[in-house]
Amino acid sequence: MQSTAAHTVLYSNNQAYGDSINIYGNVDGDLYLPGKPSSADGSTSRQCLRALRVTDPREDRVRIEGDKDRLLRDCYAWILHDASFQRWRTQEESRLLWIKGDPGKGKTMMTMGLIAEMSESNDNGPSSEMVAKADLLAYFFCQSTRPELSNAVSVLRGLIYMLVVQRKELLHHVQKRYETAGKQLFEGFNAISALRETLSDILNDASLSTTYLFVDALDECISGQSDFLRIMTDNSLARQSKVKWLVTSRNVPDIELRLHPGLDGVRVSLELSASYVTNAVAAFVHFKVQRLAAARKYDAETRAEVRRQLRKKAEGTFLWVSLVCKELESVPSYRTQAVLQALPPGLDPMYDRMMTQILAQDRKTARYCLDILQSITLACRPLQLEELAVAAGLPGDQFNNTQGVIDLVSRCGSFLTVRKGVVSFIHLSAKDYFMVGKGQQVLYNTVAEQHSRMTYHLLHGMHNTLRRDICSLQKPGTRIQEAADRISNSSLPRIAYGCEYWVEHLQAGSRDDSTILADNGKVHSFFRKHLLQWLEAMSLLQKIPEAISAMQKLQLALDKRPDSTRVLKTVHDALRFAMWSGTGIQEAPLQVYYGALVFAPWRSIVCRRFAQDIPKGVQVTRGLDEDWGPLLQTLEGHTGGIYSVAFSPAGDRLASASVDKTVRIWDAKTGRPLHMLEGHTDTVTSVAFSPVGDRLASASRDKTVRVWDAKTGQPLHPLEGHTEIVSSVAFSPAGDRLASASHDETVRVWDAKTGRPLHTLKGHTDCVTSVAFSPAGDRLASASWDETVRVWDAKTGRPLHTLKGHTSGVSSVAFSPAGDRLASASRDKTVQMWDAKAGQPLHTLEGHKAIVSSVMFSPAGDRLVSASHDETVRMWDAKTGGPLHTLEGHTDTVFSVAFSPAGDQLASASRDKTARVWDAKTGRPLHTLDGHTSGISGVAFSRTGDRLASASYDETVRVWDAKTGQPLHTLEGHTDCVTSVVFSAVGDGLASASHDKTVRMWDAKTGRPLHTLKGHTDWVTNVAFSPAGDQLASASHDETVRVWDAKTGRSLHTLEGHTSGVSSVVFSPAGDQLASASGDETVRVWDAKTGRPLHTLKGHTARVSSVAFSPAGDRLASASGDKTVRVWDAKTGQLLHTLDDHTSGVSSVAFSRDGSHLETNRESIQLPSPALSTITPGRPVQRRVFVKSRWLVVDSEDMLWLPINYQQPDCTAVGSSQVAFGFSSGRLLLLRLF
Fold first, then answer.
1. I need a surface site. Which of 54, 528, 631, 1162 has the fewest CB within 10 A?
2. Alpha-carbon gap, residue 906 to 883, rounded angstroms
3. Is the overall model pTM greater than 0.70, yes or no?
């Protein structure tokens, strides 16, 4: 950041950066329009208006009038009779009036006067002569000191807002786009283009006659000024006779260039109209002197002299008159004439005099005033009073309340004004005085050194203010919505500016200041002491994406500095920490110390540095990652699986296609969602950017291809012609053609600009799944379920080669960057490499355990990446075909994979509804497995809680020390997946069930095998000991339950009656009953001693997966795939309760220790029955722990937000002070809760 001006003027294409990133907000409350629309339409209309409204220009007008002197008709009425104004008003071909003049000439006053004259509701004068009743007037006041009023997007939103609130029937022009794009219509990269089209639709509405659009102070529209000028001068925007623009600005060359004389417009120069302006200023002087004379009790002579001197020296500048009169308000009457004589004419000499007066104060006061003026000059946005004290570095002990700051501001001449606690310059010319005028010389050293000094102030302020739980939220699960009310009463507002902008000032500061960026310097010290507290504060300010962006900028600033190697590592680690856990921190600020820190890799710098901040009541004894893996961030928002993902050519955006029928566009650096493209009527299967990134193509199961404007998100044209699902889409390298693959066994080539069909390529004998152009654009490759890849001449559509070798359908195809090789992915679990010219096979890449769904070369061509239904992404050496890395973390099929243009990042799309971004360079695994080598299917604590057993698909059972997490025994003997494990009541025995159709019993202390129980004829799914430990029950897919003698292993009973596999079995607390759950949708209760059936509990409408007795044995609970939990009377079999609030199937259920709650894999449910079961004396009270919506919930309180790789455990076991989770990756996570 070079300066405030340089910062705020930064604008690229349609995206506003810097200050303007924060302007896109919503108005609180409902805004009602006249009339009575239907409730549904009315609600949607209000939502659309709230999203559109960034400000109400009518309120801005009232505020500006309050800041300025009273509006005097005599000060602007001359313009009504000006020839240029009259020509603009009366001649249809004159559609633009530009009123230009130097600072302080009264342009804003004139704008407000014309609004008053032309408004139908004006009470100050006749309006019927100016505007016909059917005409519309909308206006906007730009102000560079307010970020929300200083960019083109806001100008367009303000004008549109005023038009639609006056004519509700115009709202549908906004609403039709809003219903497609949502609030993204008004935000981000593409907002200005979308708003231009919306404004055009409104202005061309047949119901409108003439529409007047006023924009005041266009020179203060910092971001997007050139874009707005193009829109304003675009003759195609609306019929020329219907729109009249009036613009005021200073004499700015860029505006002069755009508003050249050849346009259909006229100009009014206030310098060339000096006589009129002089008369207007004279009227203003008369008004001001009258008020001044009454307040100061001037005699007639003094009054006349004041009037004469003001008119003589004003030089046609209203602002000069205001500043002088403000000074005279505090001058004794006897000195009035002397002061008037000394006052210089002109604004800059006046500002020089004000600076002289500031410097003439006592040394300390003058220094404080200069600090304040410097801070206001450099600030990226207007500062609150308490923020100003920090930014200016004012001593906290002397300025610990805002009144002291207000007093100092009042001593800064008349440069500054305070309104509602916000400090800003009295006029833009005052800011210019310090930015580029003589005032710059008064401030400290160079601009870069000033920024460095301000950086020190901001860091110092944060150092003295930041603390853990700064808003006293107390509960770790408190959401940001609940925290908002506590911010104003905390110390956070005083450092809000510093938290958000300190890196901006550091970037603009001096590069030679080694004390700030060097190892052990200010930044290093800040991160080591306050990183977590800063992230907490940024969460409370709802600025986590900005925190990530700030650290990315800081990382670039530190890169390649030889004296900053350690701080660079610290910042890099902090960035990984924030990207990894930012979602949870933004949701609940205190999770930066809980879920984020507790689960951070144990070797990470953040974890080691802030170990003392880990909550005392939580300890992870096993299962943490050792270091940061390749996963950078997870993009969440789709409501269905994601089929495809693609980077933009610049690498700044990422597009994803989903089962939810939408395409989403994301900021690839911060993960912030940018747009949601809606229009497809079925699953979107593929997405691709054009080579220059201006267009986006999507393919869908709705049999169409859609092309979108990638900047605005607006649909351009649908391509129709396929008769089945369209599975893939690709642009040619030149961007002039588009190819699509379909289940109708064809590939179609289209003109990408017009959507006209060019060729239909036929030859495949089954669904075509993928299509890709060669880098030169001369060839086209297609993959098909007919087990072949075909290569075609892309210009003529002639077939060139048919590549055979796969033994099952081919799902994806890709050319290498050089075009000499071709890679194909197949349902046969392999990737094949081919010579693209000869069509000969080169390598077969094996390693995936399921269908390979996608393949892509890196931009350098040295690596190849593949995605698979085995939930992994694999990276290969593209030359040798050797494996390099396996990226794990997705929890369902990975459908698509894409390299960033730089090749440093990798994106993957999955059925688990997430898109993930990975570091493509490191490829380190997410965690190192030193235990199970496959997924964990079950976990169980011993009765005393000192040991933990885990069952795995790797055919083993492992026993662990539950306190330390250290492995004790590996129990081997099963020959297939182990599905269930359980300790005996006294803890000396252990039983395991397996798909090998056996139950095995082990000595739990030594790990020695005791018995192998055979008899089942299909998988054994579950096993349970009786309370006395003398019996063992096993459930099986063979539709039976078997009861065994736990000591001898002898079979006692075979319980038959279920008509489908039995999934769960459990003894009652007394051991006299046995309950079983089955795929036949029933629960059966048996006499445990005789095996006699007692009850068949019917009511579920899907598989019953789990069953549990209450602690007293009087109730029985069952969980089912029908999304319900049912509670039964265990003695009579009568249904007591049906709990049907679940949104998906329930797989497990258990009663809490006191019987008051049911713990499911989804949530903890308080039971309606008031009766509690008796707690056995002396037994520890078991804490209620479960996972719900990405949270670890302890005793109904959200305690730990779970990062993405800990969110979906496959099995859970809870002890008195511990909880264990088993994952499909083989990870065993063990937590102690004190």
1. 528
2. 16
3. yes
